[in-house]
Write a structure and sequence with these properties.
The chain has 4 helices and no strands. By secondary structure, the protein is mainly α. The longest helix is centred in the middle third of the chain and has 19 residues. It starts with a helix and ends in a 9-residue tail after the last helix.
């Protein structure tokens, strides 16, 4: 179970307001904010390409930590209800999900 009080304590933006505008993204917790600021400071002092090259292992470690194949996931699909606006678009996404669940989903993300 998620410890809501801990999550709020770890998220600086929750200290002074109730943030309800989560359609695009949520307020970052302190650890994410600190990591992003640290990365930007490194870019400002060393350059963007150099920082990316130096920290490529950190990003790879995040993706590796998800260990999708071990969880039986060979791919990930992100769908946003806010992106699909018409009824036919929503039905299309629903049919794609049904196909994915049945194991015969599309291989091309543009399908």
């Amino acid at each position: 179970m998620i410890d809501i009080d801990r999550v709020r304590d770890d998220t600086p933006g929750c200290r002074d307001l109730s943030h309800l505008n989560n359609a695009g993204c949520t307020l970052p917790p302190a650890a994410v904010l600190d990591t992003m600021v640290d990365y930007l400071r490194a870019e400002a002092t060393h350059g963007g390409y150099e920082t990316q090259r130096e920290r490529a292992g950190q990003l790879a470690a995040v993706y590796d930590s998800w260990d999708l194949p071990a969880r039986g996931l060979t791919g990930v699909v992100r769908a946003s209800a806010h992106y699909y606006n018409t009824e036919s678009e929503i039905e299309h996404v629903g049919s794609l999900v049904e196909r994915l669940v049945a194991g015969n989903g599309p291989r091309d993300p543009r399908d």
